[in-house]
Amino acid sequence: MNTFVTVVLAAGKGTRMRSALPKVLHPLAGSPLLSHVLKTAEAIPSTTSFASLEGLVSSHRPIVVLGHEAEQVQAVFGERCRYAIQEELLGTGHAVLAARAAVQELDPLPDTVLVCYGDTPLVRSEVLASVLAEHYARRATITFLTAYTEEPSDFGRVVRDDSGRVMEIVEMKRATEEQKRIKEVNSGVYCFDREWLWPVLQVLPRNPAGEYYLTDLVGVASREGREIATVAGTLDETIGVNNRVQLAEAERILRLRVLERHMYGGVTVVDPATTYIDDEVQIGCDTVILPGTMITGKTIIGSGCRIGPGSVIDRSEIGERCTVRNSVVEEAALEDGVTVGPFSHCRPGARLGRNVRMGNFAEVKNSTIGAETDMHHFSYIGDSTVGEGVNIGAGTITSNYNGLTKQKYHTTIGDGAFIGCDTVLVPPVTVGEHAMTGASAVVNRDVPPNTLVVGVPARVLRELPPSESSPQESNEKE
Ligand code: UD1
Ligand code: CA
Prior knowledge:
Structural class: alpha/beta
CATH class of the largest domain: Alpha Beta
Bound molecules: uridine-diphosphate-N-acetylglucosamine, calcium ion
Helix content: 10-25%
Number of strands: 45
Radius of gyration: 30 Å
Strand content: 25-35%
CATH architecture of the largest domain: Alpha-Beta Complex
CATH superfamily of the largest domain: Spore Coat Polysaccharide Biosynthesis Protein SpsA, Chain A
Strand order of the largest sheet: 13-16-19-22-25-28-31-34-39-42-44-45
CATH topology of the largest domain: Spore Coat Polysaccharide Biosynthesis Protein SpsA, Chain A
Shape: elongated
C-alpha cells in the first residue's frame, strides 16, 4: 500500500499584493485562494487518474505551511487541514522542510510528498492526480508539472539537455538571456520521494538571493542521475497569484469555468461576460440567468427560475420557478413561485412563502411572509410575521424601530388581512385574520379579526361580515 500527503506552501508574505490581508485569504470567486487549493487536493481521490493507481490510498488531510499570519489563516480553515509553521521565510525549499515533522508524524507514513503552492488556485484535481500517477509509474525521485507559454514572465524556466532530459529549474532572476527565452515553465506542483527529500533539503545551499529554493532540488536530483519526470499542463491552471492583476486574471478564468459548469448542467447564462457566479453556488436546470447578475456565497437556486437582469443574490435560498428582476436578495429565502422586483430588496432574515408577489420598491427584513401574499408597491415590512393571502397595500410601512428606546418591535398580520394603502403599523401590534385597515390608517393598537379600522390613530369602524372579509382591493393588483 502506498500513501501520499499534500503539503501546501502558504507562508509567503505576499508582498506584491500590497495588502493587510494574508495573500491566501484574498477571495477568488467568493472563497479564499487557499480554499481552492485545498478543495483541489481533497478531490484527488475522486479523479479518474487516481482510480487507475492501484494500491494508492489517501488518508491524510493536507498540511499547510504558514508564516506569521498563521493565526488568521488557521481561524478560517480550522480542522480542515494540519499546519506547520515556517518561523523565518527563507524560501520554498525551507518551507517544505518546515513541514517535515508534521509529515513524519503521519501514520501510515507517506512515501510521496505532493507539494503545491497556496497561491496557485486554478490547478485541477485531475492534474494533481496525473502528476502522482506519472510519479508512481516512473518510480521517479521528482515529478513536476510544467506548462508552455509564449510569455514566460516570472516563472522558473525548465532547462533540458539536447536529449530532452531535465537538468534544472532556473528562476527568472538567475536565468541567462538564453534561458529567459525558454518557453517551458515550472507550474509549482511537485511529487517528491519522501526518503530522498529530507536529507537533501537539510543540506541544500542557500542561493545568492539568500533563499533555499525548492526548485534547486531538480538540479540536485539531475546531478545524482535520478529519475525526474514531468507532466505538461496548461498555462491557465498554472497561473500564480502574486499581485492583484494576476488575481483578476485568475478570477476571469475561474469565473468562466464556473459559468461553463452551470451551462453544461442545464442553466442558461444569457451573457457570460456580465454574469458573476461564485464557486459555491448551486443552480437547478432550466433556470435562466440574465445579464448583469451577481450570485454570491453559498446560494442555492432551484430549477425554472429567471434571475436578473441586474440582480444580486447573496447567501440565499431560492426555490423553483422564482423570478428576481433588478433586485437584491441577501441572506433570505424565497419559496417556490415567488416573484420579486423590479427594484426590491429582500434583506437578511426575509422569508417569502409560496407564490408571494413582491413588486417594485418593496423591502422585507427579518420577516416571514405567508404564501400567496401580495405586496406590490413601495412598502417596508420589518420584524414581522405576515400570514397567507394577505394584501399589503401600496405605501404600507411597519415602523418597527423605536428611536427613544432603541428597540425593534414585532408586527403580526393574520391570514387574509387587507392592509390599506399608506397604512403605518406601529408595533408591537397585531392585525387579526381577515381584518382591514383604511387608507392612511396609523395602527398602534391590536385590530381584532374581521374588523375594519380607520384613521389616525386607527379606530374600529365596524365588524366585517364574512362576505366583505376578502375585499376588492383599493390599490391596483396585477
Ligand atoms: C515559484 C517557483 C517558480 C514557479 C512559480 C509558479 C520557487 C523558488 N519558484 O515562484 O519556479 O514558476 O512559483 O507559480 O519555488 N512560500 C513559503 N515560504 C517561503 C517562500 C514562499 O511558504 O519562504 C510560499 C508562498 O506563500 C507561495 C509559494 O510558496 O504560496 C510560492 O512562493 P512565491 O514567492 O510566490 O514563488 P514564485 O516567485 O511565484
Ligand atoms: Ca507565486
